[in-house]
Amino acid sequence: MTSHGRSGTECAIAQAAAVVGEWWTLLIVRDVAAGINRFDDLQAELEISRKVLAERLSTLVSDGVLKKHLYRARPPRYEYHLTAAGEALVPLLIVLQDWGSRYLLGDGTLTATSKPRSREAQRMRHLVGVRVPQVTLARGDERGRDPLGEAEWTVLFFYPGAHASRRAYPTGWKAIPGAAGCTLEAATFRHHIDAFAAVDAEVVGVSTQPPDEQAAFAAKARLPYTLLSDQELRLAAALRLPTFRVAGRDHLKRLTLIVGADREIRHVLFPIADPAASVGQALRLLERIHAPTTAGK
């Protein structure tokens, strides 16, 4: 029996582990993907020694995972950004997060939601005050755009998946807690779209589906607002959004963010037990925010 490359020289997994297998590496990639690009900010976020961080950043640049951009000449200071190879690690971060949430922090159950007091729910509540990064997400007309609209407020609702045909859903979809209800949620936002506009809020839906699937669903459901595709998981990784995996595809758990024009997240709705009721909850939050402004005019 041959070892068939057990030394690692012929094993892609072994070669990849040599690059990203060190303790701090994936955490650095995680934070750079989230828009933390400068040495001091990374050091504060990771609570890592400056020596270790400098060594890991140097190695990741040498390995082609990160690239440096000079932002100050004297003394020289650099920002670190993901290369194409680094961006290709983002789905791995999502898989690891999903695995940890399900098997280490959860009970192993496949679910599209979470418990209100779970660590995952706590992590989502900590998004209040975080700024949504500037990323370009695809949409059905093939012209990508930023997830935030031009209104004073953006209601970003993340949903597991919605299809124009029932046959397009993965087998067992309805049996996954929290997965069903996307069509109802989308239709409820459509029904209240004028009320959201009245409080200067734009509604934007985000899933990990390909843009053509989203476009077909939007046409059938007659949606008057934009659906965006985070198929490459860039926004999901940047905000560490909760996901679940079905039939070889990563899906976003149902979540709603209310975001200001300054990109700061002001409210987080998660977990969402009732998709339709959550639309009304988001609208009431915005009406309370909007009331003092209009009262002063």
Describe this structure in words.
The structure is a single chain. The protein is built from 12 helices and 9 strands. With 297 residues, it is of the alpha/beta class. The chain has 2 domains: 12-87, Orthogonal Bundle (Arc Repressor Mutant, subunit A), CATH 1.10.10.10; 109-295, Glutaredoxin, CATH 3.40.30.10. The strands form 3 sheets. Strands 5-4-3-8-9 form a 5-stranded mixed β-sheet. It has a two-stranded antiparallel ribbon with strand order 1-2. A hairpin with a 4-residue loop joins β8 (255-260) and β9 (265-269). α8 packs parallel to α12. The chain is globular.
The helix-and-strand class reads alpha/beta
The major pleated sheet works out as:
5 strands, mixed
pLDDT average, as an integer?
A: 90
> What is the spatial order of strands in the main beta sheet?
5-4-3-8-9
> Which consecutive residue ranges, at least 5 long each, have pLDDT under 50?
none
- Based on DSSP secondary structure assignment, what is the total number of beta strands? 9
User: What is the tally of helical segments?
Assistant: 12
What percent strand? 15-25%
Task: Provide the CATH top-level class of the largest domain.
Answer: Alpha Beta
How large is the radius of gyration? 21 Å
| N-C termini distance | 82 Å
Helix-strand string: HHHHEEHHHEHHEHEHEEEEH
Shape: globular
Could you name the CATH homologous superfamily of the largest domain? Glutaredoxin
- Tell me the CATH topology of the largest domain: Glutaredoxin
> What would you say the CATH architecture of the largest domain is?
3-Layer(aba) Sandwich
* Number of separate structural domains: 2
Instruction: Determine the fraction of residues in helical runs and give it as a percent range.
Output: 40-55%
